[in-house]
């Protein structure tokens, strides 16, 4: 069966309500059959030191997606060389799932830096990118926004970030509205980010 799959790559440290709003919006309002939330062990542009272990971040994604039929956690990058260049993952996925049609989903902050990604032109030649609005520093990626393969998603802006949540937990603030209940339970039980 030919399925149209949206790949939502992320560090998910931790997964938050903003991520879920985006993934659910794509599940409900696009032609994607499934959204795979791909947990990235190591973003080539981020330091690895502040990261929870891969399997803890995957567990939180698993808990967050449990009741959403079209959302699937993915650990496909765990077995690939690090840091994780998205082009390598896409090549691997196309080989492993030759009948699937893969698209990318990302927040506007990532589009602004997309010109710095490895083989970004090749990625765009072969994949559509759905961009979710986000307030973020840096110039707008005007040229990319006009690219025929880039589709801006018309959806409300959500100002939640994992960084904000990690800092808030460190300061003993209540962050429960920003996370799925089961994700918060795991963070609390495991004493993460304190
Ligand atoms: N509130 C948001 N609105 C739009 N896109 C978002 C939002 N939060 C995350 N994203 C997108 O989700 C993907 C994964 O993001 P990531 O896991 O880095 O979350 P983050 O909140 O940006 O984390 P951090 O604060 O640690 O950098 C990226 O494409 C990012 O642009
Ligand atoms: O391939 C690249 O050059 C590249 C550069 C920066 C980020 N990425 C990917 O972008 C995804 C989103 O990262 P993040 O940390 O913003 O959640 C993650 O899968 C990274 O590996 C990929």
So what's the overall shape?
A: globular
Ends distance = 46 Å
Largest beta-sheet details: 6 strands, parallel
Rg (C-alpha, Å): 16 Å
Structural class: alpha/beta
> What level of helicity do the residues show?
25-40%
Q: What small molecules accompany the polymer chains?
A: adenosine-5'-triphosphate, nicotinate mononucleotide
Order of helices and strands: EHEHEHEHHEHEHH
* Average pLDDT: 96
Keywords: ATP-binding, NAD, Nucleotide-binding, Nucleotidyltransferase, Pyridine nucleotide biosynthesis, Transferase
Domain Cytidyltransferase-like: 7-167
GO molecular function: ATP binding; nicotinate-nucleotide adenylyltransferase activity
Pathway: Cofactor biosynthesis; NAD(+) biosynthesis; deamido-NAD(+) from nicotinate D-ribonucleotide: step 1/1
TL;DR?
This protein is α/β, with parallel strands linked by helices. 37% of the residues lie in helices and 16% in strands. It has a single domain (3-159), classed as Rossmann fold (3-Layer(aba) Sandwich).
Could you explain the architecture of this structure?
It comes from Christiangramia oceanisediminis. Its EC number is 2.7.7.18. It holds the Pfam family CTP_transf_like. With 194 residues, the chain is an alpha/beta fold. The chain has one domain (3-159): HUPs (Rossmann fold). 37% of the residues lie in helices and 16% in strands. It contains eight helices and six strands, in the order βαβαβαβααβαβαα. The protein has helices spanning 17-29, 54-65, 86-96, 108-112, 120-126, 142-145, 162-170, 181-190; strands spanning 4-10, 34-39, 71-74, 101-107, 129-132, 150-152. A six-stranded parallel sheet has the order 3-2-1-4-5-6, sandwiched between helices. Strand 5 (129-132), helix 6 and strand 6 form a beta-alpha-beta unit. Helix 2 (54-65) packs antiparallel against helix 8 (181-190). The protein is globular, with a radius of gyration of 16 Å. The N and C termini lie far apart (46 Å). The model has no long low-confidence stretch (mean pLDDT 96). The chain binds adenosine-5'-triphosphate (ATP) and nicotinate mononucleotide (NCN). Adenosine-5'-triphosphate (ATP) binds next to helix 1, strand 4, helix 4 and helix 7.
């Amino acid at each position: 069966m030919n399925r149209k799959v949206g790949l939502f790559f992320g560090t998910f440290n931790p997964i938050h309500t903003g991520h879920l709003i985006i993934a659910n919006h794509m599940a409900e309002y696009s032609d994607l059959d499934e959204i795979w939330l791909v947990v990235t062990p190591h973003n080539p542009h981020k330091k690895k030191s502040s990261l929870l272990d891969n399997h803890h971040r995957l567990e939180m994604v698993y808990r967050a997606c449990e009741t959403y039929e079209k959302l699937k956690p993915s650990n496909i990058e765990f077995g690939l060389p690090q840091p994780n260049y998205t082009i390598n993952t896409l090549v691997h996925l196309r080989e492993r799932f030759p009948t699937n049609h893969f698209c990318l989903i990302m927040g506007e902050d990532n589009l602004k830096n997309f010109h710095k990604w490895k083989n970004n032109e090749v990625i765009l030649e072969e994949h559509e990118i759905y961009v979710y609005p986000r307030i973020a520093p840096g110039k707008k990626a005007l040229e990319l926004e006009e690219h025929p393969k880039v589709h801006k998603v018309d959806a409300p802006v959500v100002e939640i970030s994992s960084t904000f949540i990690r800092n808030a937990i460190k300061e003993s603030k209540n962050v429960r509205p920003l996370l799925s209940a089961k994700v918060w339970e795991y963070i609390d039980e495991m004493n993460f980010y304190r």
